[in-house]
Every structure is written in structure tokens, then in C-alpha cells.
Automatic annotation (TrEMBL):
<dbReference type="Pfam" id="PF14269">
    <property type="entry name" value="Arylsulfotran_2"/>
</dbReference>
<feature type="signal peptide">
    <location>
        <begin position="1"/>
        <end position="18"/>
    </location>
</feature>
<dbReference type="InterPro" id="IPR011048">
    <property type="entry name" value="Haem_d1_sf"/>
</dbReference>
<dbReference type="InterPro" id="IPR039535">
    <property type="entry name" value="ASST-like"/>
</dbReference>
<dbReference type="InterPro" id="IPR053143">
    <property type="entry name" value="Arylsulfate_ST"/>
</dbReference>
<protein>
    <recommendedName>
        <fullName>Arylsulfotransferase</fullName>
    </recommendedName>
</protein>
<keyword id="KW-0732">Signal</keyword>
Amino acid sequence: MKFLTLISVASTIATSYADWQYRTRPDLSPIELNITIPATDDKVSPGFLFAAPFSGYDQDNTHGPRQPGAYIFTDKGELVWSGFSYFANWQANFQASRINGENVLFAFEGTHNPGYGHGHGHITILNNRYETIKELRAGNHRISDKHEFHVKDEKTGLIQIYHPVPKDLSDYGASADQQWIVDAKFQELDLRTRKVLFEWSSLDHVSPHDSVLPINPWQAGSGYNSSDAWDYFHINSVDKDENGDYLISARNAAAIYKINGTDGSIIWKLGGLPGKTSSNFKVKGKPLTFSFQHHARFLSTSDDGSKQVFSFYDNSAHGTEDHRGHEVHYSDQSSGKIVEVNTETNEATLLAQYDPPRGHNLLSKSQGSTQVLSNGNVLVNWGSEGAVTEYTADGTPVFHAYFGTGELGKHVENYRAFKFDWHGYPAEAIALHSDISPEGDTIAYVSWNGDTETSYWKFYSIDKVSERQLLGKVPRQGFETKFKIEGETHSKLVVEAYNDQHRFLASSDVVVSEEQVEEKRVDTKAKFQHYFAWLANKD
Ligand SMILES: *[C@@H]1O[C@H](CO)[C@@H](O)[C@H](O)[C@H]1NC(C)=O
Ligand SMILES: *[C@@H]1O[C@H](CO)[C@@H](O)[C@H](O)[C@H]1NC(C)=O
Ligand SMILES: *[C@@H]1O[C@H](CO)[C@@H](O)[C@H](O)[C@H]1NC(C)=O
């Protein structure tokens, strides 16, 4: 009896939930941004928000996004593109970029192991019609990891690999059974030929003694077999400067390194935990510590090369993503940081730090990114906390959002977030839907997943085969535009998209209006609460 009731509740919700989002796309259930600091155009940087939110609890999946995947949003929280189903499996590091003159999107897609913080897969590249044009894997028969893919000068790609190798680890506190270690590698690939131009291997240059994550029998990565190899170094970002040298973030060494692009030697190391990590620099000015950091990016180099500025995300915490593992905290909160190193004076200076906005307590034990935007603003993505903040350069928060609302916002994580200028011309057809209300009005809805160009829509009635009657020219309202023609019943409609230069972009197929016998829309949010209450009580 109880069983039957539950089935009927669940099926009602499935249909009403889809309607609740978009009439034209009942199949899409994108995340809703919970914006706690709304963006105002004069303060935020231009561009769209790119993210790939997912559930932090892979096992039971209660909850997190209904459709985890790559998304493009406006900073007003309006959906631009749902990439759900475009990339397969688990996705991360979703970005816009330019390769050999072509504007592209890319993301990592593959498997995800939250316990070990590893992902195995490849990079998938889409064109500006959202069509797959290339898959990219690491060279030299190595499996690519999820953490990094970064395009340099439109021509090459930086990619990263966790390569397990057997090794005698008795010097590092391991028992005779613990013999596997992760050799953290990165490669630079020619994006046209896929040739490996450079490969670097951590075990050639960095001793396992430099790890701040000791080999412990009780944690993931304790060296018992190749899939449990000790991840002593953990490269999670790679960048390259004008001189051809590399910048890597090694999370489990709590350090950022500059690597010679000719011979692979370490040019310098900035250690983040004084007393625990070695460093080539002493800190000048404000205190500077960091650990388990992510996403180090070169920002500038002085003319003589002695000073370099870079940004990164300082987690200052470590732990597995499912809360079951061991946690280490070196601060109460994570932050975005900008640092200058001077190789003449051997000093490191903290130039700027972006703390969570007041009232937002954010300490992420995994993931995260810091992007310095073209107007000097800074976008900080709080990794396992599932949130993103934009700041002006002086540190004033001008936008903050969580990736999800209500129950669906729980346990959402997002590896990296970015803001990019982007122009999308979808290969998908325009979605048009038309209802006839009981009063005889025609209510039309239109959307075009991924379109950034449409400025207004022209709706036509084609009730009589020979004529098209223009019903109205309607400014684009967001992802979905609604147009109500009161007191007129039109059984067949078509819609055309125009850009702000009045150029015709595309036309929909002809759709036949659906008669709405009565207003069936229920209070879906109330139904949802009921469903979640049932989920919560079901054990
Ligand atoms: C590898 O070692 C881990 C940790 O001891 C263990 O949980 C896992 O089952 C092992 N896997 C295989 C394939 O032996
Ligand atoms: C990098 O290595 C090459 C070859 O060993 C050397 O000539 C060059 O000076 C090094 N660059 C830096 C910045 O140390
Ligand atoms: C949005 O986030 C705030 C801060 O965490 C929370 O208090 C609020 O309930 C959230 N709103 C929704 C609709 O999820």
C-alpha cells in the first residue's frame, strides 16, 4: 500500500519538475545558481560563467545536481548552455579557449575516484556549434588525469598524468607491502600532431621526503597496489611562461615550482608551510603560508626576468571528498592568492588575498581555482564547497553564488570555474512550444540551447498554408522567451532568430499548438519537499 503511494508521487514529480524549469525543454534540469551577492554590470567583468558542478557523494547521490555536467551561465544566473549529454561520464575543467585560430570549448571527461582525487579519461574539444571536433589523450601511452588541460599560444596543450610505479618505499616509513608510488608527470603536446614536445616526471626531480602527505596505512594512496599508489606529489596545474619555463602546483608537497623548460631542472620552489616545506624564498611583508593549493597561473614577468607574479587557489585544508577520510586544516578558510617572487633577493611577497565574502565560511578540502580576469577582477571558485565569488582587484566581492538551490544544492562540488567571452552558434535545432489556453490565447515559448547571439525572436502564424502572419517581434528574455498572443488562437507557429544587427540567424521547425484543457500546473516545489521528506525517511 505504502509502496503504491510512493510510486505515484514520484511519477507526478518527474513530469511537473520538468515543466517547472522550461516549457520548451522538459528534458533539461539544469542547476539553479543560488546568488547571494547579485552582479551589477558596472562592477563585474564581462563574460559568461563556466562550470561543471557534480555531486560530492557519488555513492548514494543524495543530492547535488540532477544533471551534473558542463554549464554556461550569465552572472545573473540565467542558463546559456546545458552541456548535459555533450560530454560523457564525469566532467571537469570546462573552459572556452582558442586552438589554431578556432574558438573552442573543452572539458575533461572520464571516470572520477573521489577517494583518491584521481580521474582517468581524456580531453574532449567542441567547436562553437557545440560539435565534438577532437579527443585528446596524453602521449607516450599514458593515461590522462582530470586535473589539468591548458592551451598555450593556441598551439600546444599542457596535460598531466598520475603514473603508478613500484619502488622501495621503506625510507619513507612504508612497510614491505607498500611499494607503489605515483610518479606525477606533465606533458606539453602539439595540438595539431599530438606529438609530445616535453615530458616531466616528479620522481626524476623531487624526493618523496618533500611530501607533506606521509604514506599512512589508513588513507587512500598507501602504496599497497598500483591503484593505491602513494600520491606523494600530486601535480594539479601546469602553466608556461614567455621564456618557455613551466609553473606547477604540487598539492601534496604544499609547494609551487618553476621548472626549466629545456632540461626539466627545478629553477625554484616556493614552499607553503614554513618548518614543513623547504623554500627558495623568504617571505617579505605580510605573512604568506599555503597548502594543498590548486591552479597556479603566471600573471607577469619583469623585463629582466627576476620578478614573476602568479595567482593560485590556497585550500589550506586536505581531506577526501566524501568526508570519510582524515582531514588536515592549516587555516579556517581557503582563499585566492596573488604572489610575487624575486629571484634576485630571494623574497616572496603576498600581493593580494581574496578571502570568502563576509558571512560565507568556505574552507575547501579539495579542488578550487583562481582566475584573474581581463579587467583585473578575480574569480575564485571554492572547489568542494560548490561556490564561486567574483571580486574587484581590491578584494571587494561583487558576485557570489552557490552551484544549486535547496536540496539540490547540497553536496555540490565544482573543480574549477571561469569567466570567458564566448559566442555559441548551436547545431541543435531551435526549440519552440505553443499552448492554446482554455480562454483561446496562444502562448508560445522558445529556447535555443547554447545560443549567445539572438537578440529578438519573430513569431509567425502559418495557419493558412500559403501565408505567414507575423504575430510579434519579441526581445530575448533569457534561456527561454515567452510570448502570449491574447484572444487569438493559432494552431501552427514558426519562430525566427535575429541578432542585434537584425541579421537572420535560424528558423525553427513548424510546431502544432497543444490544447490546454485546464491549468494543470501544480505547486511543484511543495511536491518536491514531499519527495525529499520521503527520501530522507526511507531508511
Ligand atoms: C589495493 O589496495 C587497497 C588498500 O589496501 C585495497 O583497498 C584495494 O582493494 C586493493 N586493490 C586491489 C586491486 O588489490
Ligand atoms: C635552463 O636550462 C638550460 C640548459 O641546461 C640553461 O642553459 C638555462 O640557463 C636554464 N634556464 C634557467 C632559467 O635556469
Ligand atoms: C542560498 O544560500 C544561502 C547561504 O548558504 C542559504 O541560506 C539559502 O538557504 C540558499 N537558498 C536556496 C534557495 O537554496
